Structures are given as structure tokens and as C-alpha cells.
Description:
Elements: E1 4-6, E2 20-22, E3 25-27, H1 51-54, E4 67-70, H2 76-87, E5 91-96, H3 102-108, E6 113-117, E7 121-123, H4 134-137, E8 143-145, H5 147-153, E9 159-162, H6 170-184, E10 188-193, H7 197-200, H8 208-222, E11 227-232, E12 234-235, E13 249-251, E14 257-261, E15 269-272, H9 274-288, H10 290-293, E16 297-301, E17 304-306, H11 308-319, E18 323-327, H12 338-351, H13 368-372, H14 376-381, H15 388-394, H16 396-402, E19 435-436, E20 474-475
Parallel strand pairs: 4-5, 4-9, 5-6, 9-10, 10-11, 11-16, 12-15, 14-18
Antiparallel strand pairs: 1-6, 2-3, 7-8, 13-14, 15-17, 19-20
Helix pairs in contact: 2-9, 6-8, 11-15
Amino acid sequence: MPAELLSDLALRPAPREIKISTNGQHHEERRHKHSRSSYSDASPLTSRNNSLIFRPAKRPMPSPDKTIAVINASGRQAASFIRVATAVGYHVRAQLRNLEGVVATEVSTNPNVTVLRGELYTKERPAEKVSVDVTKNGPISGIGVNHALISELFRGAQLAFINTTFYGDEQSIGVALADAAKKAGIQHYIYSSMPDHNAYCKDWPSLPLWASKHKVEDYVKKIELPATFVYTGIYNNNFTSLPYPLFCTEMQPDGSWIWQAPFHPDAKLPWLDAEHDVGPAILQIFKDGPRKWGGGKRIALAYEMLTPKEACRVFSRGVRRPVRYVRGPIEVKVKIPEGYRCQLEALEELYALGKDDAEKQPPYFGDRALDESCPRVSLELWEGPRGLEEYAREVFPLEEQANGLTWMLEEGDRGGGVSNGAANGNGNGYTNGHVHSGSGAYHQHNGGGLSPSHEHPESEDDGEVDDDDDDGLVMRGLKRDDEEWLA
């Protein structure tokens, strides 16, 4: 299917407030306790670190004359990069699956972006039902690669930032993208990868949703593209009080939260605010160029190394309520695809290896040297990160509010919403209609690959690939509307 090109569109002003939908009616944003917000006043995307507001105007600079190819442009990593790259004058050729959602609208109306709308994969009715774990069983029957769109993506581009996801056969798409970039003469190819732990130690299990990326990384090295590989830490944005596995902060009757996960409570983990910090860091890698970062160098991108207990203390300071960590199994309270269930089971197995000794827990990035490089290397790329406490204080309440939750509102402003999770016995404090489950892909804030960024759009019922099967668990809210949470 040929890509649909969209360009020269006027930039639509960002809305000045988030509206809350209750029983199908929209209301002005209600007052909440977290008034100091990165999304307040000028724009819902404006940060207090915005240099256009808080720094004096600089002398005019010539615009960069290079074009950057980007896929899955509505994902957190890609959207963050597009914002900063186009702000300084780069042109972007951006692949989008569709134009639905706030972020897709932001990208498609950016005058420095040419949008190629379409899927990176092709699909036919599968001949038979097969396992969704393509790392063990090969490609899904009936799923191919949209070579026409991929070739068009790199037309006239000199640089590329590529973050493959679960839509289609990720490994085949990753190989096709690398081949097309090589043919187009891309000068610097940045690939968002993740480790295969089994490749570092045969006693460690592979996380199946990360193994596909690692195989693509190996292929990029094999064909000798001038490439850099970026490994992202756990997203601050993963946390939610909705009942999603692994990063659910479950609200208690007293208003406190419990985060339960299999990580050792005293073992350091890497953290990253994807929306705020991926873009500036990737831009600096491009500015430094392949002479510094080429040759297959790997960069662990994370700005804080926090144990789960430390993360809870930091988060607690931000939201001004107790947050307690419990080491325990991953609780699955909603329907998830079988492929993601395999990922969670492998995760539990991997982080059970250290048992009670935090020093024996496998490093998050597989290579201990990469873990130890955080946050030093990241801070060399970008010195203005948004930490977990700042995220919890300024952004988390708004993301929760946009998804129908009411815990952050003043007592008199909660209206008919569930108050502090006490009503209906659900412990989460969310209004009706904001959590949707069904067959197909599971979507969450994606955290360095721990979330299911590589699940394949296959129905669990009959093996047939269909557009409706992409609607597993989807964050439904006005912040991103119906936008799927890509990596």
C-alpha cells in the first residue's frame, strides 16, 4: 500500500486547558492540588524548562539543511525527538499509522514534518493460528513488510531515528528498514534497541519482547550502517493507578499507594522521562555525529539510578502521599495478550535470580558497564532532565486526570467521580469508560521495553489479523484521546 503524504499544513495552536468528559459531557478543567504543572498556562506541552520562555532571545541561527526519517511518530520517544528537532529547523519525514489522537495531530500539523501515513507491515488472512512469540516460532503467518512505504520514508533523508514496535513482524521490519537506509545512504542511523539478557549470560532468560530488537541491532551492525544504539531506561510515565500489570500504583483505602513488582527493593534501576528527555538527547547524538557515536556504540539513556524503594520515596514527595514498595509477583488483573504474558513471566524469572542479594540481580541493560554509565553519559548529552519527583508532582496528576481519575481534585470538585478509590471497591478512583480490554495488543505507557512494545496484532480467538484487534488495553483520555501508547 503506498504511503499517503501530508505536508505544508498549518500548525494548530495547542489547547489551553484539558477538558474532562463525564457521562459524555465536557466540562472545563477542574481545580486540583497540583497547580505547579509543566502543562499549565501557555500550552499542555510547555515545560518550565522551555528556553523560549525563560531565556533571552538568541541571535538568529541558520536552519539545519538535513532531513531525518522517523517511524512510529506518535510514540513517546519519536514525538519527543520530533518536537526538538523541528524546533531548531530540521525537517522530518515521519511515518504514522493513523492521524488519530492528540500527538498524531501535533506531528501532522507541524510545518517541518512530512507525514507518511500507513502501516510498516502488510497483512493477509493467516493460513493457520501460530504462536505470537516470533522470537521462538518465526514470523506470524500472513504478515509481511510494506517495502514501498519504507523506501519512501528515506527519500531525501540523511539521518534516521528508528524505534520499531510490535505492529507487524518487528524483526523483518527492522531488517527492511536497515536495508533501505543503507541503500539510501543514510549518514547516521540511531536505533532504539534493548538487550537480550541471554546473549550476555546463558543462565539468564531472554525477555522475548526485547530479543527482537537485539536481533535487529545485530543485523544493523552486520551491514555496517553508521549506527548508534540507544537503550532507554524505565519510563517515569509508566506509573498509573489504573490496573495495568507491573507499574500499577494501587490506591489503598487511606489514599496511599502500593507498587508491587519483582525487582529487588535495594537494586538500582535506570529511570527516564521519555517525553521530556529522549528528544534533546537524541538530537545531541546527531549533532555529535557518527565520528563520536558511530561504529555500533551503545548508549544507556537514563537520568536517575533509583532502587524501587528510593523510587517510591521520590514519587511520594512528588504526589504528597505515601507510596510503598512491595516485592512480589506481577499481578494481572485485566486481560492481556499471551505474548505479553510470556514477557512478564520471563521478567519474573530474570529478577528472581538474585533472590535476596541485590548485587546478584541481573543488570537492567544486560551489560553491567552500561548500567554503571548512567546517568553520566546521559547528562553529557542533555543537562536538563525531568526527574521522577518532578514528573510525579507536575505531570502524573494531569495524566491521571486525563484518564478519568479524580484523586488529585479538591474534595468539592470531585462531583460524581469515584473519590480516592474508595467507592465500588475498586481501589483506583476512576470513572466509567476509561479502561478497555479485549483481544489483541496491550497498550501502556511504554517503559524502555518493559511494557509490551513488541506484541503482534494477532487475535487470540482465531489467529486472524484485523484492525479491531489492536484495541487491547488502551489508555482512553483527552490527553492523547484514542492514541495507542507506542514506545
